[in-house]
Write a structure and sequence with these properties.
Rossmann fold; 4 domains; 9-stranded mixed β-sheet; 19 helices; 22 strands; binds adenosine-5'-diphosphate
């Protein structure tokens, strides 16, 4: 037996590693399994190049828990190591990056540690985070005798001959008291499933069970077979034209545990300029989305790296679900590095472009299907447009709007139909189809379509569109924002208007309301109330998004129909209790056409209406 100390003078390395990885201990599973995969890949490479002789043993990795002994063993049948190699790779090379590690990152923020370990070739040492002792038994593919390396702290080790007879390496972890849960088959299995679900070599998990004494006359029970936990050929590695819809759906169900079918998906498969493969699914995004709904899993050569890395996947795409595999990404480096990396930026832009192109092609080739998805995907698409100009530019032609009549139209289609040449380009919308039914009807009666914008994102989205399309001067107005297209041009008396303003201000108890007098297109309508669009939007947005209630005073206008007999009567009438009652009733009815009356105003309205009805029978 020989003894040694790993070649590093910084004795505090282990405490540092332990501290770094504290938040994500189960990383050691990934590191040890990846090393096993690498070792198997190296052996295959030697065989293919005629430098090693193949045998019958199929590639595999076994992870075995033994509760009684308190051990967790990772076994691979890869290339193996000779004594010399163990000393060189494990004790020396592994720590060559360690001094760097200490000097560079101890001052840095804590959360980035998990990624750094792999980068500095410290993967194997993550085993010490959960172990009191680690033993390596390895037999090289060459003739070298099997070797055993034992260390309790990752600093001092012993080397002796091993009794291992098969090619490959077994790494046995004597799990420390605090981490015994890893010996639990369920924990172990789910940790493996999290990190290794798509690794390219079959991985089996099992536990050592002490055979029960067979009862008299019974056969002894067989130990349960090890179970394979991974899919070595994830769907994203296949060519898109070789995958069926059923396979895509099945993959989605399995990976995301979501039994609702995805709407559609995009199979990314690029070799140039990036080596990138993956599948992005559009799930049904409920109207009021939250950022946590989607999951995008990032892989590096089928090894799981992390979920939802904002630096690689544009934030708005995180509403989707999917897997992305980028072997070239320097994923084991810190996140701040990823943020500033030109390659990463280009890749994010590429993914965004693919998503936009797919939406446009769905729209162009399968408009009916697309319209059916639209209700589910539009918050996501709109959010993307606001977040990313380039996405907006690309997806623009596929943006559609649902009318209150149930049709789906593009902005151009809407404008061509509703705003013939010479008219201002105004899109009328409703935010609540039921409450605003009366106003919607007024527009529809004039042959104008009203679109429905009723999600949280819509306010921001139309402001964004108005700003972005300012050259084309498109504006959006809610059905109660202006009376322009419901009224006609025509001379009205300013004196009459002033008089009416006085009457109504008094009756309504509101000195700020502006009164307009106009001939209406609809003769039967007495009046309507409009509220300035920009003011209303600002107030809504600041309370929704900013959390603060910055109420601008509502700019309300009461528009009266100059053609209506009641309005004519008011113009001529002498001011008295009767005119006041009529004005109050007219104003309340106008208000009710856009929103329900509340509190005292409702009480007053009911009282007044009852009195008016009673007067009717008294006459
Ligand atoms: P990295 O994998 O990043 O190089 P590790 O500390 O995980 O760093 O491993 C150091 C080296 O030890 C590996 O590069 C490899 O040469 C060797 N090694 C580790 N595990 C195995 C194994 N299971 N089989 C063969 N060689 C291994």
């Amino acid at each position: 037996m020989s003894k040694g100390t790993v070649s590093i003078n910084a004795e505090n390395i282990m405490p540092v590693i332990k501290q770094w990885l504290y938040s994500d201990k189960d990383i050691f599973v990934r590191e040890l399994v990846t090393n096993g995969c690498d070792a198997i890949r190296k052996f295959r490479w030697l065989v293919n190049n005629g430098q090693a002789t193949a045998d019958d043993a199929p590639d595999r990795i076994d992870v075995i828990a033994d509760k009684e002994k308190g051990t967790l063993t990772f076994i691979d049948n890869g290339i193996g190591m000779s004594e010399e190699e163990v000393v060189k790779y494990i004790a020396q090379v592994a720590f060559s990056g360690a001094t760097d590690f200490i000097t560079k990152y101890t001052e840095d923020s804590k959360g980035e540690g998990a990624g750094i370990i792999g980068h500095f070739g410290l993967g194997f040492y993550s085993a010490f985070m959960v172990s009191d002792k680690v033993v390596i038994d390895s037999k090289s593919y060459s003739d070298a005798p099997a070797v055993r390396w034992t260390s309790e702290d990752g600093m001092e080790y012993e080397i002796e001959p091993s009794d291992r007879t098969e090619r490959g390496t077994a790494i046995t972890l004597y799990i420390d008291e605090a981490d015994k849960d890893f010996l639990n088959l369920w924990t172990l299995r789910s940790t493996l499933e999290k990190h290794c679900a798509f690794m390219p070599v079959p991985i089996f998990v099992s536990e050592v069970v002490k055979p029960e004494e067979p009862k008299e006359g019974e056969e002894p029970k067989k130990a349960p077979e090890p179970q394979q936990i991974n899919d070595t050929h994830p769907l994203w590695m296949k060519r898109p034209n070789e995958c069926t819809d059923e396979e895509y759906k099945e993959f989605y169900r399995k990976v995301f545990n979501d039994y609702e079918e995805p709407l559609f998906w995009i199979h990314l498969n690029a070799e140039y300029p990036f080596n990138l493969k993956g599948i992005l699914y559009f799930p049904r995004i409920k109207n009021e989305f939250t950022a946590s709904e989607g999951v995008i899993k990032l892989y590096n050569n089928q090894v799981f790296v992390a979920d939802n890395i904002k630096e690689v996947i544009p934030e708005f795409l995180l509403l989707l679900k999917g897997c992305i595999d980028c072997p070239d990404l320097p994923l084991n480096v810190s996140r701040s590095f990823l943020q500033n990396d030109g390659y990463v930026k280009k890749m994010a832009a590429y993914i965004t472009r693919k998503v936009a192109d797919r939406l446009v092609s769905e729209f162009n080739t399968k408009r009916e299907d697309y319209q059916r998805y639209w209700d589910d995907i539009h918050p996501f698409v709109k959010y993307g447009c606001i977040k990313d100009d380039k996405f907006y530019d690309r997806v623009k032609s596929a943006l559609i709007y649902k009318t209150t009549g149930g049709e789906y139209v593009t902005l151009d289609e809407y404008l061509n139909k509703n705003c013939p040449d010479g008219e201002d380009k105004v899109v009328y919308y409703a935010s609540d189809e039921k409450r605003q039914a009366q106003m919607i009807k007024l527009y529809n009666d004039q042959g104008r379509d009203v679109i429905l914008l009723n999600t949280l994102i819509d306010n921001n989205f139309i402001s964004f569109l108005e700003y972005t399309e300012r050259d084309g001067k498109v504006s959006f107005k809610r059905v109660d924002a202006a009376a322009d297209s419901l009224t006609e041009e025509g001379e009205v008396s300013e004196d009459a208007r002033v008089k009416l303003e006085g009457l109504f201000r008094k009756a309504m108890g509101d000195d700020t309301v502006e009164v307009q007098l106009k001939p209406f297109k609809d003769d039967a309508l007495i009046s309507m109330i409009t509220v300035d669009e920009q003011n209303r939007r600002f107030t809504e947005m600041s309370s929704r998004w900013g959390g603060m209630d910055m109420k601008l005073p509502e700019k309300r206008t009461l528009v009266l129909n100059d053609k209506h007999p009641l309005v004519k009567w008011l113009q001529a009438a002498e001011e008295n209790e009767r005119t006041e009652t009529v004005c109050a009733q007219v104003a309340d009815l106008a208000e009710m056409a856009r929103q329900p009356l509340v509190a005292d105003r409702m009480v007053d309205f009911l009282k007044r209406s009852n009195a008016l009805l009673t007067q009717l029978i008294e006459k």
